[in-house]
Specification:
InterPro entries: LexA-like, LexA/Signal_pep-like_sf, Mito_IMP1_subunit, Peptidase_S24_S26A/B/C. By secondary structure, this protein is mainly β. It has one helix and six strands; from the N terminus they run E-E-E-E-E-H-E.
């Protein structure tokens, strides 16, 4: 699936206007960028970094904790509804990602 980034919560790895390719149902490891359903508003998707998996789901965090309007597991707790793992940022062409970008090592 394709997802467009909005907001500044994932800077510097992702910026508003970036387009991502997401593999639905892919295995997730700590450090991966993921797309999940926002708890309390399941029609809205969020892009966050998976930090750890516990008994109640994944703890998801924003890279930019100071972003206005940022919401992550610090606000709503662990998340069970992970839609998929970000595979790559495909647009815009030529922009390098931040040191914690989307490449998987």
């Amino acid at each position: 699936m394709r997802v467009r980034v909005e907001g500044d919560s994932m800077r510097p790895a992702l910026v508003p206007g970036d387009w991502l390719l997401v593999r639905r149902g892919a295995a997730v490891r700590p450090g991966d960028l993921v797309v999940a359903r926002l708890p309390g508003d399941p029609d809205r998707l969020i892009v966050k970094r998976a930090q750890w998996h516990g008994a109640d789901g994944w703890w998801l965090e924003s890279d930019n904790q100071r972003a206005g309007g940022r919401r992550d597991s610090w606000d709503f707790g662990p998340v069970e509804d992970i839609v998929g793992r970000v595979v790559l940022r495909y647009w815009p062409l030529g922009r390098r990602h931040g040191k914690r970008g989307v490449k998987r090592g």
